[in-house]
Amino acid sequence: METKGEDLVTLYDEAPLNARYWVSMALAVTTSIFDFFDFFIVGFLVAVLAPQWHLTFGQTSVMLLSAGVGAIVGSLAWGALADHFGRKTLMVAGVVLCALGAGSISIIPDGAWILFACLRFVVGFGVGAVAAVALPLIVEYTPTRHRTILTSITVIPVSLGILAASLTAATLLQLIGWRGLATLGFLPLAPAILIAIIMPESVRWLVSRGRHAEARRIVGQALNVPPESLPQPAIAPAGFVPPRVSSFADLWAQPKLFWLTVIVWFGASTANYGVFLWGPTIVALLMGVSPMQAGHLFVFVSLTGMLGRTAFSFLPKWLGRRRCGEIMGYGIALSLGAAALFFDRIIFGYPAFVVLLIPAALFFDGGFSNISPYSAEIFPVRLSARGVGLAQAANGVGKISGPLCLALIAGASNLITPKATIDAVTPAFLFLAACGLAIGLAFSLLGIETHGKPLALESGDPTVAPRETVPMREHATTQQA
């Protein structure tokens, strides 16, 4: 087999996409859908339990926010662990934690709101953990030539978990009750078992940790050749230092990428969550309809968001991730800024606010298809999970602090779910537009291009270090000798 001196990672990068790859990708996406189902089903559970258990506003707030706090902790903790112990094992563990936390709610005693909140913290921890591990695994698992499109496409179905939670609650809640609905939280255990059996570990992570024997076995399976025919690591020279254990300090040591990640994810989360938090209420106030009727109009916003996610899966192939990040950020700034300034005008017989939010969803929702893989691509493999963990933590902080900022702008006493008022529309949505502007500027000033470029194993090293492997020809010659 002609290798032209390629190393293991290069050989793996040129392997065809076999059935195991597609099944593994499908399992990763299915797991994310289930996890988001578990994460968002709590709104319907609390809506039922609050009157039954005579809960106060503070108690329901703790029950709702505990998962968000858990997601922040889980993403940071699992990101660090995954860079040290590997992607696959930590992904399975995160899914199991999420499933056990969600399903166990079905057996808690009535009125045990503290136990409910604790289990929801576990659910959030698991969701954050899976997000911090699944993205690096998918990015590292996909060949460079296909990475930009395929890794972005995997973000599109994730929102189906939110849709599934809504449909399941609407159709099954009266039939199976809240405990039956909570029992569905155990469903992710099935894909977790399949992932443990089918999905391979990341070859890039194995090589970055010096575990070449395992990497050779996986590459051999991908190429359908005996592992013995593949390159072996060179004999370590005297004074060789094994791969060191990375830490979060290594993220801070790259301030450009650190702040790029924090600004992009905090801004994107705040803008997205702010629109979906306030949008239906503002539409109801402007059109004089019920919140339920306004919710029907927001279906078009959600569908446009799905269309945007599809568009931002393919655009980076031609424009690059950095340029698409700029389009996302400046698109949010212009569209939400226009909605803020002209919200009470009439366009096509509807308030301009309603009309402008539909194309705005292309950016504040669709752009996630581009930035999700990007957070795993900009950091070297040995830091990738930590980088994604940092992104997900900023995402979680945005979901919590965003409503607080909107509440302060509106002068509302409710800091958890502030109610929108007409007077607060312009300043609130100008704030959300400013978040989009921050995203665009971050990509313009700090962004780097990752499309079509191989993932770095170490900081400042875009390829596999030469000392890690030897060419196959050299290895064959050694065997003959």
What this model shows, in words?
The structure is a single chain. By secondary structure, the chain is mainly alpha-helical. The chain has two domains: 8-201, MFS general substrate transporter like domains (Growth Hormone, Chain: A); 248-446, Growth Hormone, Chain: A, CATH 1.20.1250. It contains 20 helices and two strands. The chain has helices spanning 8-13, 19-40, 42-52, 57-85, 87-104, 113-141, 144-153, 160-183, 189-198, 203-208, 212-223, 248-252, 255-287, 291-319, 321-341, 352-364, 368-377, 381-410, 422-446, 472-480; strands at residues 346-347, 350-351. It has a two-stranded antiparallel sheet with strand order 1-2. β1 and β2 (350-351) form a beta hairpin. α13 (255-287) runs antiparallel to α19 (422-446). The longest helix has 33 residues, at 255-287. The radius of gyration is 24 Å and the shape is globular. Residues 1-6, 235-240 and 461-481 have low confidence and may be disordered.
Key descriptive features of the protein:
mainly alpha; disordered C terminus; single chain; Growth Hormone, Chain: A
What's the helix and strand layout?
Elements: H1 8-13, H2 19-40, H3 42-52, H4 57-85, H5 87-104, H6 113-141, H7 144-153, H8 160-183, H9 189-198, H10 203-208, H11 212-223, H12 248-252, H13 255-287, H14 291-319, H15 321-341, E1 346-347, E2 350-351, H16 352-364, H17 368-377, H18 381-410, H19 422-446, H20 472-480
Antiparallel strand pairs: 1-2
Top-tier CATH class of the largest domain: Mainly Alpha
CATH topology of the largest domain: Growth Hormone, Chain: A
State Rg.
24 Å
Number of domains: 2
Mean pLDDT: 81
The first-to-last residue Cα distance is 19 Å
| Shape label | globular
List the strand order in the largest sheet: 1-2
| H and E string | HHHHHHHHHHHHHHHEEHHHHH
What's the architecture of the largest domain in CATH terms?
Answer: Up-down Bundle
The total strand number stands at: 2
Contiguous uncertain segments of 5+ residues: 1-6, 235-240, 461-481
